[in-house]
Structure formats: structure tokens, C-alpha cells
From TrEMBL:
<dbReference type="InterPro" id="IPR037401">
    <property type="entry name" value="SnoaL-like"/>
</dbReference>
<dbReference type="Pfam" id="PF12680">
    <property type="entry name" value="SnoaL_2"/>
</dbReference>
<dbReference type="InterPro" id="IPR032710">
    <property type="entry name" value="NTF2-like_dom_sf"/>
</dbReference>
<feature type="domain" description="SnoaL-like">
    <location>
        <begin position="14"/>
        <end position="107"/>
    </location>
</feature>
<protein>
    <submittedName>
        <fullName>Nuclear transport factor 2 family protein</fullName>
    </submittedName>
</protein>
Length: 114
């Protein structure tokens, strides 16, 4: 499968998250997550709507982030991506691991060995 095919096959919740970041829409970003969803950014875990919004404010939307999915692989409810990130906090490529539940994101993990 080509990279373009992998990205076009991205599960809808992950696509919504990328669009929310790129559109600087914190409400849409938070709505992508389950009520107990979390972001784990290099071991810093922010849980629930307040935690997710906090991360969006400090590391993503509040930092002017733009996210581009480079590759994506879906295995059941787990989506492993490689993405490009540009912001005032970090610029480069990282791995992103999403766990899905009920049409939403239960977790978004950026491991330290990006």
C-alpha cells in the first residue's frame, strides 16, 4: 500500500484530530477523545477533557501546530502513524499511536523514541 493510500485509509477519529489541530480548533480537538481519553506525550500523561485541552493549549493548538500524517497502519483499534509536526514547541517527525474506542480516540501516545 502506498503512503497516499495509507493516509487516505486513516480512521475517521484520527483524521478529525489532525484537522482540529491544523484548523486550530480546541473544541473539535477535545471532542475527538472519549471522556476518559488521554494524551501521553513522552511520558507526560494528561487525562480527561481538561487534560486533553491542556495539552492542546500548551503543545499543539496553542503552539501553532501543523500536523501531517506521513504513514499510517491500522491493526484493530490501534493506529500507528508517523507524522510531521511544525510548531513553536517542536519541529520534526514523530511516531503517534492512537487507540480507538466507540468512534473516538481513547489515547494518543507520542513515545519518547520518536
Amino acid at each position: 500500500m502506498s503512503t497516499a493510500d495509507q493516509v487516505s485509509a486513516l480512521p475517521e477519529p484520527v483524521g478529525r484530530l489532525v484537522a482540529a489541530i491544523n484548523d486550530a480548533d480546541t473544541d473539535a480537538f477535545a471532542a475527538c477523545f472519549t471522556d476518559d481519553g488521554y494524551v501521553d506525550d513522552w511520558g507526560r500523561v494528561l487525562t480527561g477533557p481538561q487534560g486533553v485541552r491542556s495539552w492542546a493549549g500548551s503543545d499543539a493548538i496553542g503552539a501553532g501546530a501543523q500536523m501531517t500524517i506521513l504513514t499510517a497502519d491500522t491493526d484493530g483499534d490501534t493506529v500507528t502513524t508517523r507524522f510531521s509536526w511544525r510548531s513553536r514547541v517542536f519541529n520534526g517527525e514523530s511516531t503517534g499511536i492512537f487507540t480507538l474506542s466507540g468512534g473516538k480516540i481513547a489515547s494518543f501516545t507520542i513515545p519518547p523514541n520518536h
